[in-house]
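Operator note (shift B, R.M.): manual run for dITP/XTP pyrophosphatase requested after the automated queue skipped it. Running by hand, logging everything below so the morning shift can see what happened. Input copied straight from the record, untouched. If output looks odd, do not overwrite the archive copy; leave it for review.
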Amino acid sequence: MKLVFASNNKNKIQEIKHQLPPEIELLSLEDIGCHEEIPETADTIEGNAILKADYVTSRYGYNCFADDTGLEVEALNGEPGVYSARYAGEQKSAEDNMDKLLKALEDSTNRNARFKTVIALNLNGKQNLFTGIVDGTITTEKTGDKGFGYDPIFKPVGLNTTFAQLSLDEKAQLSHRGRAVTQLIDFLKM
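Run finished. Output pasted below as returned.
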């Protein structure tokens, strides 16, 4: 089975390819010749995942899935949420985003947060959504050099390490994206 993953983010593609069974051939946007920036104009994580999946299906005709992820921080009323990738500006710099978040929480004792990923799957004319959530806390400093995005400052509940300190296998078992991808794979096996 061929499925397009509506992303050009090499880190996300690598994480998801690592989880998929060999009978699913994963194609990126680059693989199908989609080089334009897909608009993410929805005001929810679910909405952006649906927009991206629908964009690929309607313009390119492929079965595909798209994800959107947000980091929701309790003390910031759920921010950065749907704006996580652009929290510090349109340049989408992970370092700038983390620095802005750490500064915003500088005087806060409430560092509770959660990562939420929603995957929208368009398969044979039907759409299904899969959601993965991981609760945790925002650390006071960056730790670890693996992963991407906010991984160096997010410590999941039950661990004394950040996502950026975990191997791909460990992160796939614990992460929000890993949980949503597991639901997607289970659905595809039915």
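Quick read of the result: The domain at 2-189 is CATH 3.90.950.10 (Maf protein). The chain has one domain: 2-189.
Leaving this for review. - R.M.
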